[in-house]
């Protein structure tokens, strides 16, 4: 009996091959007039950093064109020296941070904000529009407002919240901090519940009443035996929170060390006593442990603060210490793609903390990545070697010579050649020479459409993967850029600032390829209509601009100096095309004007 | 600090060699870091009073800040079985919140753990293994402290 094989396993052993690498060829026919001097120094666009309370995503070139501003020197952030060349980077100076926090940190609306997010969103827009035009360029549709905070700022912000609530609740700061943490920093809810039932809230948060009257201190009590180490020598220093569970200082110290260092606990360290829910407060802790542990403790506390708040997120870049504040809420994510730029130069999406994926909304990114994980190369193999069962759709690989297939899954019997019912083959078994059977044509149609959808996916995937690959290659070049720039400086006598155009070009390439990559994921989920065509035109324009620049970037060092103007033009053109594409896409996304072939929710 | 855990274990040992509740006895503590205890369960038809169960305690340097690793140990002679209980796996691993970082308190000691396990067995009414026992025993390679048990059943 011939057998059919359900091809799930068979699809496995396909080695992943990298998508076809882009050809990188050097074009020799450059019309370089080596003698022609580069025009008088072109001033590189400078990011203006004054008078704004928030920073938004900008690309430097577009800014520079729109804002005819004299370059103002950048204010250095207090705890991080800024490289003078990070023009592309959006900057919130330390001086501005204070003001910015005044605006935002009081915005404690997690409880009642469930319905006002939309207004927030639009308020921001209008508030923004009302600012004098000459102060900064109009915000593009794809840009969002955000602030970058250093650990010091976060601490400060946290302290202020605590202080504010502490006066209201008439509780010491340490207790208030525990209460706030217990309520995930939802101030309103805490105050409301506290006023309703003080005892219960205190109890649930692991605090007993009247702590304020009895500040924590170490004591030596006669006849005391520590239940942990069983020491009972006279004069043994001991400590107890107001739950009364008393242990010697050494044991307490060990216990806290274990919790903080090994288990990463901070906000919910409980009394060591059995079943005791009393939570360790910062003041008692400071009394008991050494300073290195206190530092770690406060660092952990700060983590929970940022993790608890919806409008704060840690920058996901390795070793980055900054947190970013952004007002975009989870439910806004179908209408906006909130890319933020951390001070460490990492651009990431505030919604999902993945690397910048504009213009593609988070939901589509998730779907796309999942799909790529499942499919991609495997799909190629399946496409070439298998067919689907006409009844249940299982993927089937033919493993025997005969055409009589029996699906392992649904026991459907069909003919491999015409995909028609086997029963219709009558007596002409094992020989399919029929053509006109209806069931066969239907099955083949279904087959064709399934193939078609696979091909469609592969079309987008190949381009997506290609840009990813090219961006990597571009990055390799970027690492060589610095060497090139040094060479260029010595060979052409240009100054350091004059060769910065290479770095700008390199960064532009990275950024544009990142965008292009995601336009393909975006396009995969787009339903075809007139808007799709506009989108594809924009995509095509950007792609052409990028490939032109990329090609130019690979020229020999001695030719580069002569290409400076051309290269700067192309760089700025790339960035402009990118802004146009992103702006148009974001605008339509905001108006919910795109038609997707999947649910965005 | 190894000093602290050794000192505490010494003191516990002295106390345990004195008096212990009925049904609990010390087998050996030759190695201060590994103690063997025997347990018998009174008044529960699931566990015949003649049956004795062997518990093994492993103490880390951070004991008593950190919980000891406690498991049932099967033995041919004298015969020691793994007691039948919905929270005890056939490989001897015990799912008990007391032994987990969250449920552990440094105030507990060997004696109190033994009493807890004894009463957990004495109060048991189900002569069965935990759900997924076979699968867990076959696949588990991690130490008890690294397993994330879900303490969902306070009744047994």
From TrEMBL, chain A:
Catalytic activity as recorded in UniProt: [E2 ubiquitin-conjugating enzyme]-S-ubiquitinyl-L-cysteine + [acceptor protein]-L-lysine = [E2 ubiquitin-conjugating enzyme]-L-cysteine + [acceptor protein]-N(6)-ubiquitinyl-L-lysine
Top-level class of the enzyme under EC nomenclature? transferase
The record's listing under Pfam families reads: Ariadne, IBR, IBR_1, UBA_ARI1, zf-C3HC4
Q: Name its species.
A: Salinomyces thailandicus
- Which part of the chain is the RING-type domain? 222-436, 226-274
What lineage, starting at the top, does this entry show? Eukaryota, Fungi, Dikarya, Ascomycota, Pezizomycotina
Q: What is this protein called?
A: RBR-type E3 ubiquitin transferase
Compositionally biased region (Acidic residues): 100-127
Q: Which InterPro entries does the entry mention?
A: Ariadne, ARIH1-like_UBL, E3_UB_ligase_RBR, IBR_dom, TRIAD_supradom, Znf_C3HC4_RING-type, Znf_RING, Znf_RING/FYVE/PHD
Q: Where is the composition biased (Polar residues)?
A: 29-39
Q: Which GO terms describe its biological process?
A: protein ubiquitination
Q: Which SMART domains match?
A: IBR, RING
Keywords tagged on the record: Metal-binding, Repeat, Transferase, Ubl conjugation pathway, Zinc, Zinc-finger
**Claim: Protein transport is one of the keywords in the record:** no
Note whether Hydrolase occurs among the keywords: no
Q: Which one of the record's GO molecular function terms can you name?
A: ubiquitin protein ligase activity
Q: Where is this region: Disordered?
A: 1-136
Which Enzyme Commission number(s) are listed?
2.3.2.31
Automatic annotation (TrEMBL), chain B:
Residue ranges of domain UBC core in the record: 4-156
Concerning PROSITE patterns, the annotation shows:
UBC_1, UBC_2
Name the domain of life: Eukaryota
SMART domains this protein is in?
Answer: UBCc (SM00212)
Which family is annotated? Answer: Belongs to the ubiquitin-conjugating enzyme family.
The entry's protein name is Ubiquitin-conjugating enzyme E2 2
List of catalytic residues: 95 (glycyl thioester intermediate)
Coiled coil located at which positions? none
Alphabetized Pfam families for the sequence: UQ_con
Q: Which InterPro entries does the entry link to? A: Ub_conjugating_enzyme, UBC, UBQ-conjugating_AS, UBQ-conjugating_enzyme/RWD
User: SUPFAM superfamilies from the entry?
Assistant: UBC-like
Query: Keywords in UniProt for this one?
Result: ATP-binding, Nucleotide-binding, Transferase, Ubl conjugation pathway
* Single annotated GO MF: transferase activity
Q: What organism, scientifically named, is this protein from?
A: Salinomyces thailandicus
């Amino acid at each position: 009996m011939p057998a059919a094989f359900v091809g799930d396993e068979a699809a496995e052993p396909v080695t992943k091959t990298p998508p076809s690498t882009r050809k990188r060829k050097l074009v020799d026919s450059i019309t370089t007039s080596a003698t022609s001097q580069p025009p008088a120094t072109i001033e590189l666009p400078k990011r203006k950093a004054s008078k704004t309370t928030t920073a938004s995503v900008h690309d430097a070139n577009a800014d520079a064109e729109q804002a005819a501003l004299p370059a103002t020197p950048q204010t250095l952030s207090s705890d991080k020296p800024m490289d003078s060349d990070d023009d592309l980077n959006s900057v919130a100076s330390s001086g501005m941070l204070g003001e910015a926090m005044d605006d935002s940190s009081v915005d404690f609306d997690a409880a009642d904000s469930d319905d006002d997010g939309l207004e927030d969103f639009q308020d921001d827009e209008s508030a923004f529009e009302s600012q004098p035009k000459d102060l900064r360029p109009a915000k593009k549709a794809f840009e969002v407002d955000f602030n970058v905070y250093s650990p010091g700022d976060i601490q400060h912000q946290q302290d202020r919240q605590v202080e504010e609530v502490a006066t209201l609740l008439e509780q010491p700061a340490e207790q208030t901090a525990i209460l706030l943490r217990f309520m995930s920093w939802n101030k309103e809810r805490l105050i409301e519940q506290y006023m309703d039932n003080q005892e219960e809230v205190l109890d649930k948060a692991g605090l007993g009443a009247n702590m304020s009257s009895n500040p924590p201190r170490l004591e030596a009590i006669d006849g005391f035996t520590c239940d942990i180490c069983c020491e009972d020598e006279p004069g043994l220093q001991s400590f107890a929170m107001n739950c009364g569970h008393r242990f010697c200082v050494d044991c307490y110290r060990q216990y806290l060390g274990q919790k903080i260092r090994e288990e990463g606990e901070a906000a919910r360290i409980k009394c060591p006593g059995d079943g005791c829910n009393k939570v360790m407060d910062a003041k008692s802790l400071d009394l008991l442990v050494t300073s290195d542990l206190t530092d770690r403790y406060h660092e952990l506390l700060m983590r929970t603060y940022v993790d608890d708040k919806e409008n704060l997120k840690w920058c996901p870049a390795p070793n980055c210490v900054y947190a970013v504040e952004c007002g975009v809420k989870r439910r806004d994510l179908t209408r906006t793609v909130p890319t933020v730029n951390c001070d460490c130069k990492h651009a990431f999406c505030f919604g999902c903390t993945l690397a910048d994926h504009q213009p593609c909304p988070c939901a589509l990114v998730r779907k796309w990545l999942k799909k790529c994980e499942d499919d991609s190369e495997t799909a190629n193999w399946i496409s070439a070697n298998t067919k689907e069962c006409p009844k249940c759709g299982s993927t089937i690989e033919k493993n025997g010579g005969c055409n009589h297939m029996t699906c392992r899954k649904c026991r459907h019997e069909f003919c491999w050649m015409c995909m028609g019912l086997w029963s219709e083959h009558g007596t002409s078994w094992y020989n399919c020479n029929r053509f006109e059977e209806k069931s066969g044509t239907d099955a083949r149609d279904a087959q064709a459409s399934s193939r078609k959808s696979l091909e469609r996916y592969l079309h987008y995937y190949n381009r997506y993967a290609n840009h990813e690959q090219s961006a990597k290659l571009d990055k390799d070049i970027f690492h060589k850029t610095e060497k090139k720039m040094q060479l260029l400086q010595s060979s052409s006598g240009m100054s350091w600032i004059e060769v910065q155009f290479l770095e700008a070009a390199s960064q532009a390439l990275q950024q544009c390829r990142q965008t292009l990559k995601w336009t393909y994921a975006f396009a995969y989920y787009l339903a075809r209509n007139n808007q799709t065509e506009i989108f594809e035109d924009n995509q095509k324009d950007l792609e052409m601009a990028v490939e032109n620049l990329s090609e130019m970037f690979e020229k020999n060092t001695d030719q580069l100096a002569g290409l400076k103007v051309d290269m700067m033009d192309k760089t700025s053109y790339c960035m402009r095309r990118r802004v146009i594409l992103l702006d148009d896409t974001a605008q339509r996304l905001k108006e919910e004007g795109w038609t997707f072939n999947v649910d965005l929710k | 600090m190894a000093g602290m855990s050794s000192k505490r274990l010494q003191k516990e040992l002295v106390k345990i060699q004195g008096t212990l509740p009925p049904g609990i006895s010390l087998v050996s503590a030759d190695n201060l870091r590994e103690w063997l205890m025997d347990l018998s369960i009174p008044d529960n038809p699931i566990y015949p009073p003649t049956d004795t169960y062997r518990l093994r305690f492993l103490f880390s340097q951070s004991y008593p800040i950190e919980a000891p690793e406690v498991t049932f140990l099967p033995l041919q002679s004298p015969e020691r079985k793994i007691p039948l209980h919905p929270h005890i796996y056939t490989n001897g691993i015990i799912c008990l919140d007391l032994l987990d970082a969250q449920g552990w308190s440094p105030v507990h000691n060997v004696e109190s753990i033994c009493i807890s396990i004894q009463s957990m067995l004495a109060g048991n009414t189900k002569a069965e293994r935990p759900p997924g026992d076979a699968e867990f025993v076959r696949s588990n390679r991690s130490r008890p402290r690294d397993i994330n048990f879900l303490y969902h059943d306070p009744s047994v």
